[in-house]
Each structure stands twice: as structure tokens, then as C-alpha cells.
Design a protein that fits this description.
The chain contains 22 helices and no strands. The protein is an all-alpha fold and about 525 residues long.
């Protein structure tokens, strides 16, 4: 990275972090409103089954398959000097028609989908109505993901980072305005939030198209020439990425299928625990999101050294964030759940069950972050690899084997953590052998030191929390979190776990093709 590029990258990470943080904060408000308004009962379970549609569409069409395919596509095309307008005109119409058809099919098949996803759910008719509303997110999320990929490839990060702020604003606004409609009002909010994701990016996208037109008007490029990158957007490229993304999201399907036969509220408890614990994973991937166009161009250009540096820095940054969060949530799970959700209809029993699940969920956060960082390298070439989908299938097999109703909701969470950890290991092993040969010491060394840091920090946190037992819960949470953070950072810095992030760019032999 050049001296001038580094400040721009840091600024992009900072802006993205602020906007993602605001979106996550509003997401907490959203979950708080849902918890206090509906609690954890049959009506909430019905809404959450319907919410499976946007939960599946979001990773597939926003941060998952759409980004993994389109960011490299736009990056390669722009590097080759293609006109953005021609690239958009050759790809967007067909994509929108396909997504609109999928939305319509999902709405029509809602009764069947509810029966498959949650066969034992008490309020099946409410789940069907909510699912028909949320099916519009397939089109809206797909369009939002397309705009995000195009803007990020041109190093415009603020509008894409604001999409979850717009999404959660739609849900919060509708839950408040349509509180008398119960969970159905929340489903309206999900649909409205999807529209907001598109609207918040449309002005920046239109501006980029306008600038592309002005630039192309002064060139000698033949108007009828097909953009070089357009041929790369095909089912052969998209399907392996989509299968991987859907397989990863299938963790949620397995959880809810197994939990639908458990006592009322089990799906809700799993959902609340996952939503809180996953915030750290989202934050941990910000640097990787910003660096993804740079990684794609480095791999496409055969610059293995640059690809190695980018991937290693992203991996260490993500591991540091999720491991710090792991320590905090292990020690303070009950405090976090109580402070965030213990209001209104969300009972003491709900808080106890959610906290117990969360302590198990966080054991898989490192695996989630590793998968989120490493899988990008597999999709940067002209042809996407099927290996990530196979690795994810192996992780799902482990999860399906371990997730049994007799082991309860904590057993389901443990199965989730075990499955994603298996996938992470498989991706790392193959990455070193075939894609970017990260040296074992350069990659495993920092992560091992971070694991030491999190162990010491968690021990200090348990001691601190015991000594703060008499304080109000929010204050005790803040002080305990501060102790854990300080100890974690001190150990990580003193052991050199973060040297990769502070300029250690010594050359290391790389091999293999993209």
C-alpha cells in the first residue's frame, strides 16, 4: 500500500466503522423494541420464522455472494478502463428481473416454507402473512447489494456502510407506528427497511454513473463495445459463491428447525443471543470489507506479496476484535442481556436463557471471523472456487450431527460453534496450499498470542466482576468491560500479537495461483 493510499484506507475504515456502529446501535434499539413489545412468545417466534427470508437474503445478496462476485467484477472492469454505464446496463436489468421473480415465488410459497422451516410452530398463519411481506427484501437486498458492490469497487464506502442504518430505521419506525398490529407491523418495517437500503445509495450511484459518462465522452472507446468484465457475470461464477453463502446461512435453518420442537420461546432466545454476539463479527470484518477491492486487484494482477499482506492484516484485525468480544461476553453475558433487553415483556427467565446461549455462541466467533475473511480470497479469480461451499458443507454436517433437541438450546449453540470452527480450519488449510501461502508462523503466531491475551483478560474480568457485585448492573458492566479491554490490549501489545497491524511487512515466499 502506498503512502497516499494508507490514509485513504484508514479514512474509509473509520467512516465505515462509524456508520456500521450507528447501524448496529439502531439494531440494538430494534431488538430492544421487539423484545419489550413482543417478548419471547409464539407471536415473536412466528415473526422470526418469517425473518428467515431477509436473514437468508442479506448474506447472500448484500455482504455475501453479491459482494464476492461483483466487487472483483467491477474492480477488474474498472482497472481495464471499461465504461461503468455499459457494465451496469449489461448486468442490472436481468439481475432485477430474476430477483423480482424470486420475491414473487417466495410470497406464493410462504405456507410451504413455513411448514418446512418450523413445522411445529403454533402461529403458522401469522408466520405466513409476515413471510409474504418480508419476501420483498429479496429484490430490495439484491439491488442494495449491487449498488454497494459498484460503489465499493470505486472506493466509495459511506453510502454502502449506511444501509443497515436505513434498514433498522425502517423497522424501528414501523414497530413504533404500527404497534397495534403486533408482529405484522414489524414485518412491514422489514419491507420498508429494505427499500431504505436502496434509497440511501441511489444518489451516490447516480453520481458515479454521471461521472462515468462524462469521462467516457472524452475517450475514443467504441460505443457498441461490450464491457470486458460483463462476460464474467454468469451463473458459473455466481452459483459456487451462492451455494457457499446459503450453506453458511443454513446454520440458522438447522437451529430453528431443531428449536421449533422445544418449548415456546426457544427460537426467540437463540435469535436474541445470536444477534448480540454477532455484532462483534460484523465489526471485525470492516477492514476486510474496505480492503476487498485491493485484495481482488492484487490477486488478479498476480501480486502475491500484496495479497498476503492484505489478507494477513485483515485476519489478525478480525481475530483481535472477536476475541476481545468473546472475553467480554463470556464474563458479562447476563449483564449485557439484562441491560439491553430486560424490559417490558422480556422476562427474567428470558434473560437467563438468552445469556446461557450467548456464552456458548461466542465460542464460535473466531471461526466466524476467519471464515468471513478467508473466503474472499477464494472468489477473487475469474472463476469462483467450489471449495468454500464444500468446507461449509462439512461444517454443517458436524452441526447437524450435534444439534439435537434432547441437548436443548445450548446444545444447538454449541453445535453451531463447532461446525463453523471446522469450516474455518478447512478454509485455512486449503488457502495456504493453493491460493495465498500464508506462512504458518505469520498467521498462527499472532492468533495464538491473541488467544493467550483473551484467556488472561477473561480471568481478570471474572475477578473484577466478582468485586463489583454490589454496583448497579450497567456500571458494573462498563467497569468490567474496561478491565477486560485494558488487560487484553496490554497482553496483546506486550507479546507482539499486533505487529502485523503496525507495519511488519517483511517479504515471505508465496506460491500458488488464484
Amino acid at each position: 500500500m502506498t503512502a497516499t493510499a494508507a490514509p485513504r484506507a484508514a479514512k474509509a475504515v473509520g467512516v465505515t466503522a462509524v456508520l456500521v456502529g450507528l447501524g448496529s446501535g439502531l439494531g440494538f434499539v430494534r431488538d430492544l423494541m421487539l423484545g419489550t413489545t413482543f417478548g419471547a412468545d409464539a407471536e415473536t417466534d412466528a415473526f422470526l420464522v418469517a425473518w428467515t427470508i431477509p436473514e437468508t437474503a442479506a448474506p447472500l445478496l448484500i455482504e455475501g455472494a453479491m459482494a464476492f462476485v461483483l466487487v472483483p467484477l467491477f474492480s477488474r472492469a474498472l482497472e481495464a478502463g471499461d465504461d461503468l454505464r455499459r457494465l451496469v446496463s449489461s448486468t442490472m436489468p436481468g439481475l432485477c428481473l430474476t430477483l423480482a421473480a424470486l420475491s414473487a415465488v417466495t410470497a406464493a410459497g410462504a405456507p410451504w416454507l413455513v411448514g418446512v422451516l418450523a413445522p411445529g410452530i403454533p402461529r403458522a398463519e401469522l408466520a405466513v402473512g409476515c413471510m409474504r411481506l418480508t419476501s420483498v427484501t429479496i429484490l430490495m437486498f439484491g439491488l442494495a447489494g449491487y449498488l454497494s458492490a459498484a460503489l465499493r469497487a470505486q472506493h466509495t464506502f459511506a453510502p454502502p456502510a449506511a444501509i443497515y442504518l436505513a434498514y433498522n430505521a425502517g423497522i424501528v419506525g414501523c414497530v413504533w407506528a404500527l404497534s397495534g398490529q403486533g408482529a405484522f407491523g414489524a414485518a412491514v418495517g422489514v419491507a420498508a427497511g429494505g427499500v431504505g437500503m436502496v434509497l440511501v445509495q441511489a444518489p451516490a450511484f447516480a453520481l458515479r454513473l454521471s461521472r462515468s459518462r462524462e469521462a467516457s465522452d472524452g475517450t475514443a472507446r467504441i460505443i457498441d463495445q461490450e464491457p470486458a468484465g460483463a462476460v464474467a457475470l454468469s451463473w458459473a461464477v455466481f452459483v459456487p459463491v451462492a451455494v457457499f453463502t446459503l450453506a453458511r446461512q443454513s446454520q440458522v435453518f438447522i437451529e430453528r428447525y431443531v428449536a421449533s420442537s422445544l418449548p415456546e420461546g426457544s427460537i426467540s432466545h437463540l435469535n436474541y443471543a445470536q444477534k448480540v454476539s454477532q455484532v462483534a463479527m460484523v465489526v471485525s470484518l470492516i477492514a476486510a470489507t474496505v480492503s476487498f477491492p485491493r485484495l481482488a486487484r492484487a490477486i488478479a494482477a498476480g501480486d502475491r506479496a500484496a495479497a498476503r499482506r492484505t489478507l494477513l492484516a485483515d485476519l489478525v484485525a478480525a481475530a483481535a476484535i472477536v476475541l476481545l468480544a468473546t472475553a467480554i461476553l463470556l464474563v458479562c453475558a447476563r449483564d449485557v442481556v439484562t441491560v439491553l433487553l430486560r424490559y417490558g415483556a422480556f422476562t427474567e427467565a428470558d434473560a437467563t436463557a438468552t445469556a446461557a446461549i450467548m456464552r456458548v455462541y461466542v465460542l464460535g466467533l473466531l471461526g466466524q471471523a476467519v471464515v468471513g475473511v478467508v473466503c474472499r480470497a477464494y472468489f477473487c479469480g475469474a472463476r469462483a472456487s467450489w471449495y468454500p461451499a464444500l468446507a461449509m458443507a462439512a461444517g454443517l454436517a458436524v452441526m447437524a450431527l450435534l444439534a439435537r433437541p434432547s441437548w436443548g438450546v445450548t446444545g444447538i449453540a454449541a453445535a453451531n460453534a463447532a461446525g463453523i470452527t471446522v469450516t474455518a480450519v478447512l478454509l485455512l488449510v486449503r488457502l495456504r496450499a493453493r491460493i495465498v501461502a500464508l506462512p504458518l508462523r505469520a498467521s498462527a503466531g499472532p492468533v495464538g498470542l491473541l488467544l493467550l491475551s483473551v484467556t488472561v483478560a477473561a480471568a481478570a474480568g471474572w475477578a473484577a466482576r466478582a468485586g463489583l457485585a454490589g454496583l448497579p448492573q450497567p456500571l458494573a458492566l462498563a467497569l468490567t468491560g474496561a478491565v477486560i479491554t485494558a488487560v487484553f490490549c496490554a497482553v496483546a501489545v506486550s507479546t507482539g500479537a499486533l505487529t502485523t497491524l503496525t507495519g511488519d511487512t517483511r517479504p515471505t515466499r508465496l506460491r500458488g495461483g488464484a
